[in-house]
Specification:
Phosphatidylinositol 3-kinase Catalytic Subunit, Chain A, Domain 5, alpha+beta, 12 helices, 20% strand
């Protein structure tokens, strides 16, 4: 027997997701659907088969250990996209929600406040209870990605458990014993990116002496106390690639694939193409080897498509090579390690992307001319905060210095 889930976009039914008896997925838009789920799936009367449908919905589900635990808790297969989204698809990335029935009607019940004790308990129970699944009346929340995290609704400085009228606004990430100072690492890289590239706000906070990172969701907007979802999709979704192939070495997207998608779909293609290249350079400078296709996204805004702000930025290269691979997620001029890449490789990349290498090199040089001074300023500000103070910033700045010399050598 076929199974079906209603798919909502911005709280309005936009279509139906169907799983047939073989476990294959298809998607059919409603006759009055206004907006597309994906750039590669424009609104049309014909049904989309599994080759379009499965990559999009697969990339809405969590990954790694979080996916395993969710599957175990709900007694479903972690390989069954439909079953996972049936259980936790109420608050996905972007503006997508999935329900077996109608979109829940506001009951005017008060939001459940998540206090400091609750946050500390949730942190202690991760990853055994990912995505707040351990809470009473847990929200139907889905976050892609393998890192231990959950999401909350933040209103007037207080945290609340999200519901269908008040979606999550902030992502909470916790420490990782395998990688010391991971929170400070991402804090520094994100704050540096905010100064140079522009991105979302991030802060290091504590709950009963448990540190955590609070990150604004770029796919949410708060106006006059109301929370609005902004639809987004990562580049695996844009390119029709399942999450398990997010790395180039697994057959996943290359830099050229992502760049071409920007040229094809972006409403401001020249500007977004340049922003994408700048982000590639930033990842090179900080040593972010994990910049795979799921760590780049587009936003759908009132019928227009733009590149999303940067996110999930950290320096992987500050950790020993025995603990984390030096292979980069997407090669540059055929080279798979940043240490082997220099000015000539980026000039070759610009040409491969159809850019004028001289003009692009000049743009990039101007963009990052003051990155070391900016990094030192960010470091000083963070080290003046007793909670955020860390020696990890020195290590990242040293990588930036070395890479700047390689990229802009005369």
């Amino acid at each position: 027997m076929n199974r079906q889930l209603n798919v909502y976009l911005y709280g309005r039914k936009t279509g139906v997701l169907t799983e047939d008896q073989l476990g294959h997925l298809s998607f059919q838009y409603e006759a009055d659907a206004q907006f597309p789920l994906s750039a590669r799936m424009p609104v049309r009367p014909e049904e989309y088969d599994r080759f379009y449908t499965e990559p999009f919905f697969d990339n809405l589900t969590p990954e790694g250990e979080a996916l395993q635990v969710v599957a175990q808790k709900f007694h479903v297969s972690q390989d069954n996209i439909f079953s996972i989204l049936d259980k936790i698809g109420g608050d996905c990335a972007g503006a997508v929600s999935l329900y077996a029935g109608d979109f829940p009607v506001n009951t005017d019940s008060p939001l459940y406040n998540i206090d400091e004790e609750d946050i500390a308990r949730v942190i202690d129970e991760l990853p055994d209870n990912p995505l707040l699944t351990g809470m009473e009346n847990a929200p139907r929340l889905s976050l892609a990605g393998a890192q231990s995290k959950f999401a909350v609704c933040k209103i007037d400085g207080k945290y609340y458990r999200s519901d269908d009228d008040f979606p999550t606004t902030h992502i909470i990430k916790i420490t990782n014993k395998r990688f010391p100072h991971l929170l400070e690492n991402e804090l520094f890289c994100m704050k540096l990116a905010k100064e140079i590239l522009g991105t979302v706000g991030v802060e290091l906070r504590e709950a009963n002496s448990r540190p955590y990172l609070e990150i604004e969701r770029y796919d949410r907007q708060i106006k006059e106390g109301n929370i609005f979802r902004i639809h987004q999709e990562d580049f695996c979704q844009v390119l029709g690639v399942p999450a398990r192939r997010k790395y180039q070495q697994d057959g996943g997207p290359k830099i050229r694939d992502c760049y071409n998608a920007i040229i094809e779909f972006s409403s401001q293609a020249p500007a977004d193409a340049n922003k994408f290249v700048e982000l590639l350079v930033f990842n090179y400078l900080i040593g972010n080897t994990d910049a795979h296709a799921k760590n780049f996204s587009i936003l759908h805004r009132k019928g227009e498509i733009v590149l999303s702000p940067a996110y999930d930025l950290l320096s992987a290269e500050i950790y020993p090579e025995k603990d984390i691979s030096r292979e980069i997620a997407m090669t540059i001029n055929g080279k798979g390690k940043y240490d082997a890449i220099g000015k000539k490789d980026f000039l070759a990349l610009y040409e491969q992307l159809g850019q004028n290498p001289t003009n692009m090199a000049r743009l990039v040089k101007n963009k990052f001319a003051n990155i070391i001074l900016t990094a030192e300023s960010v470091r000083s500000a963070l080290n003046n905060d007793s909670q955020a103070k860390s020696g990890v910033y020195d290590s990242i700045i040293e990588i930036i210095r070395r890479r700047m010399a390689s990229l802009f050598e005369e």
